[in-house]
Design goal:
The complex is a heterodimer of chains A (185) and B (334). Chain A has 185 residues and is an all-alpha fold. Chain A has helices at 3-15, 19-41, 44-60, 71-93, 98-101, 118-129, 133-145, 149-156, 160-176. The longest helix of chain A is centred in the N-terminal third of the chain and has 23 residues, at 19-41. In chain B, α3 crosses α4 and α7 (93-107) packs antiparallel against α8. Classes of the chains: A mainly alpha (185), B alpha+beta (334).
């Protein structure tokens, strides 16, 4: 049985009301979901709340859920939507502007790099800053969470061709900025 | 059809993708031939390979205790009857507080407002040998070293002096502050005033040590002359001369722990190594012989495993380590 089959089996059990299955799903995905939520919101409390809300809704509304082909993709999409909701709620009461709240960054420290020199990190940081926030979010989702192109399109609510264009452009930009040759594959 | 559409189509073409990924069932003959048909095809292959290659992101390891604690919190809410409703009443610090202060503003009762709006202290504590990365609301990233404590008030984004208090050691990558805001790291003896930068602060010693990798900071100590620090400089307040001393060539050393190593440079004195071991692992060190203090070590050593670290130090320094509870005895090798 592949990883995906196992996950789908857990998902099926969870839908039937098996709480231990929900716990296993939580254990499998919590770290990645929280990581993403924190990247989006940059707020520890909000990120944790977003993940908890998603699982609470998952459990409470399990009988009305659409058919899911990949649990992880479904959860990532839900976490993103929940983060948006929480951020907007917060912004209604404060003067924070919505655009800066979703400035997802990728730091040199988060990448496997060949040498840890300050110069290398500068090159990488500069390269990353040439990408648009959306491009950074897409490559983060693609290469940290292994979503495929169709899933990315659905998570971000854009079409398949746009996802391809974004990743294509982002990788060309990173190569041009000399980022790739400093990375350890 | 332009290049981007062609790339999109090829990415969806299972036969092409399995050839590109060198899978066994691939139709090699067909795609090898296709590749040679035109320079354009070769360019397409090169671009798609680049997209497949992507970027290697470090996967954050799962913190089982954290996940478990978070699950327990969730399951408590699930078990309650009508959990949908109770969930929404669950105190959600930020927004509840904002809603509360808003309601009271309309009543314009200032005293009550202040009372309810009291900022909450947020604290982080790491155990020995544990690291924690914290992202602050303003986007600042802090890596907290082991055996360290960090605290700030949850309204810190709204204050003009965004002050963080540190005991122990941490590496700061401070986000650019909006005009009029200042980021400050306060330790028991000094304050570091920041203008968007990256630096390490260690408060384990008698006086704090600040090491700057990027940007510019200002070190202040009440009643004494300020010290400006530029990238590559490390400074420590000297209580004998009552001024900041600049420590030469120590920046790499002070920022290396985040990468699970100590960069000792050309000749790190034994005294520093001993102090570093004591504060990192919470050990008290006894030297069998004072002559050990004359030794020094060089190069990079891994610190993610205590036993391995002692082994490499033992080799580098020609000494033996003997661990006895929280006491570490260092002996010369005969």
């Amino acid at each position: 049985m592949t990883q995906k089959d196992k996950q789908l089996k857990l998902w099926e059990a969870m839908l039937q009301g098996d709480l231990t299955a929900l716990e296993q799903i939580y254990a499998l995905f919590h770290a990645d979901l929280y990581h993403y939520a924190l990247k989006l919101t940059k707020q520890v409390d909000l990120a944790e709340d977003a993940v908890q809300d998603v699982f609470m809704d998952l459990w409470n509304y399990r009988k009305q859920l659409p058919t899911v082909h990949a649990p992880k993709f479904y959860l990532i999409r839900s976490v993103r939507n929940q983060c948006l909701k929480l951020i907007n709620k917060q912004n209604r009461f404060t003067a924070l502007d919505a655009a800066s709240s979703f400035e997802l960054t990728i730091l040199p420290e988060e990448l496997k790099i060949k040498d840890n020199s300050e110069l290398t990190k500068k090159v990488i940081a500069a390269g990353m800053s040439t990408l648009s926030p959306r491009q950074r979010e897409i490559i983060y989702l693609k290469f940290y969470n292994n979503l495929d192109y169709e899933e990315l399109a659905e998570v971000l609510d854009i079409n398949y061709q746009s996802v391809v264009n974004h990743i294509h452009k982002a990788m060309i930009k990173l190569r041009k900025a000399d980022v790739l040759k400093h990375l350890k594959y | 059809m332009d290049k981007k559409n062609k790339i999109a189509d090829l990415l969806r073409n299972n036969s092409f993708m399995s050839w590109l990924r060198k899978e066994q069932k691939a139709d090699n003959a067909h795609w090898e031939k296709w590749k040679k048909e035109s320079a354009e095809n070769e360019q397409l292959i090169s671009d798609i390979s680049l997209m497949e290659k992507g970027i290697p992101l470090k996967k954050q390891s799962t913190d089982k205790a954290r996940t478990k604690a978070s699950w327990n919190k969730l399951v408590n809410q699930l078990d309650q009857p009508n959990s949908v409703k109770t969930a929404k009443i669950q105190p959600r610090r930020n927004w509840l507080k904002i809603a509360a202060s808003l309601a009271i503003l309309t009543v314009a009762s200032f005293g009550v407002y202040n009372f309810l709006n009291q900022a909450e202290l947020i604290e982080y504590q790491t155990k020995l040998g544990e690291y924690k990365t914290i992202t602050l609301p303003d986007g600042t990233e802090i890596t907290l070293a082991g055996n360290s404590h960090l605290s700030f008030f949850d309204n810190f984004v709204d204050t003009n002096e965004r002050k963080i208090t540190l005991e122990g050691e941490a590496y700061f990558n401070v986000a650019k502050q909006t005009f009029g805001k200042q980021f400050i790291v306060a330790t028991k003896d000094i304050e570091v005033q920041v203008v968007g930068t990256a630096f390490n602060v260690n408060t384990h010693r008698a006086t704090s040590i600040v090491s700057l990798t990027e940007g510019k900071v200002n070190l202040t100590k009440e009643g004494y002359q300020n010290q400006a620090l530029i990238a590559g400089q490390t400074a420590q307040f000297n209580s004998a001369t009552n001024q900041f001393d600049l420590l030469a060539d120590q920046t790499d050393y002070w920022s290396s722990w985040r990468f699970q190593k100590w960069s000792l440079g050309d000749a790190m004195p034994m005294k520093e190594i001993i102090q570093r071991i004591e504060e990192t692992f919470g050990l008290t060190i006894h030297l069998e012989n004072e002559s050990i203090l004359k030794k020094s070590a060089s190069g990079d050593i891994a610190i993610d495993n205590q036993a391995v670290l002692f082994e490499s130090l033992s080799y580098l320094l020609n000494v033996d380590f003997e661990l006895n509870g929280s006491e570490l005895i260092i002996k010369n090798i005969e």
